[in-house]
Predict the 3D structure of the following.
Amino acid sequence: MPRCFDNLTARRSRTRPVNRSRRWGRLWRSALGPVVAALVLRVAPLEAWGAPPIIVPLQDSRVLPLPAGVSEISVSSADVADVKAVGTGRLLINGKRLGQTRITLVDRSGQVENHLVQVVLPVLELTERLRAVLPRQPIAVRAVGSSLALTGVVDDVLASQRAERLAQAHLAAFGLDKERATVLNFLSVRGKQQVQLRVKIAEVSRSALRQIGVNAWYRTAERAGGVLVPGAQLNSGLAPDLGDTGSALQAGGGVASAGLSPLPLLTPPFATDAFGLLFASQDSSSFPLSIALNLLRGKGMAKVLSEPTLIAFSGEHADFLAGGEFPVPIPQGLGNTGIEFKRFGVQLSFTPTVLAGGAMRIKLTVSVSERDQASAVLIQGTSVPGLSTRLGETTVQLKNGQSFAIAGLLQDRIENSSSRVPLLGDLPLIGMLFRRNSFRRSETELVILVTANLVQPIKPGEVPALPGEDEISDPGDVRFFLLGDVEVHKRIQLKGRGAAGPVGFNP
């Protein structure tokens, strides 16, 4: 039986000897008792009774023993708890809404007792669920007003997130949303929680190009003709003035000998950086001819190597950008133009989650982009370059110090084209005058490698030298002019163990 319900019974069970000398005192107290009791009930706070509050779970009930002789039971807030006597000597309390209320018990002699009833969130069922789902995690649940507090130490962030989701589902089962009831997550995670992510991006591109094409033009006083590759046209302008060269193909002053006008300017077969071979005979020759020949064999190689490094706390997001931004005009209404900046360069974005046993789950996005004038567009008279981007986005799980190749690309592209005059272009040797061939091949290899490590801060005496920290860029006038030195190196002696890995650039 709770101590708060023992007071009325205990007072009735006391037996005192009755004598005549105390009879008038009892009569006096019985006359003033109701008045004093009324004054006490008005001014005494609820805690004055010294009884602990009665805890009732929400949407649950408790049955307590009811003292004998209680004639009246009342509750201050019937919407919080419902109180009624059941059977003989029992009191039933039903929790209806989160909060607290006051129960008043009055016996036949006028004695009054008040008791505090608190309706709280149930935690027993949630505790059992947490033990079943997370058996190795010592998680304690406490009801704090309209909130549930989770305390303890867990192995990783995932266990903390799962416990919080279970608590939220537990509240939703009672029809409580986040506005009326919340989950206070006070769980701590053991072990190191800072993750260093090192990303290596290596790209090698190779290209090979071979081209051959011929434009020929023949002209006499009576006739003119030639062979032009597809798309080539006779330039509307005249050939450049070659000056007074005697009986040359083109005489000075823009007037050729024999009364012929200057030859038209032949366009090259390829609008590329191909080498051009030009041949022309004199106009006084028996076969005046001009030829423009393009021959090209080229090879190209490009290499991109980036190695960004970034550190973030478990569960937090981190971004890294080594590059820049360029403005892009955005047409708007009423003739206005806005400006939007586009990022380019090496971009790294990741969110690490440290798991139990030193494992890490990493969600990352890495991209390497550069401006590409070949895909530029014209917006309101402004040339806006495009972007050539290599992007990788994924989620991986690995342990401390392990590496993972998250993306790879091997691309081999071959383009071959041939344009020729039927029959004539198929002839050996001489057929090269009647065809144009182009061969282009490009190879691309791309690898993105990530390495994750659990790290912790280093002491002040263990900070390694920064790249370029030991260089002085001002050698002085004497060393600069006489000795030709452009920089002076001065080694800095550091205390402690120094750098744990390679630092700086080794040519």
Q: What stands out?
A: The first helix runs from residue 6 to 13. The chain has a mean pLDDT of 75. The helical segments are 6-13, 23-43, 124-133, 157-173, 477-481.
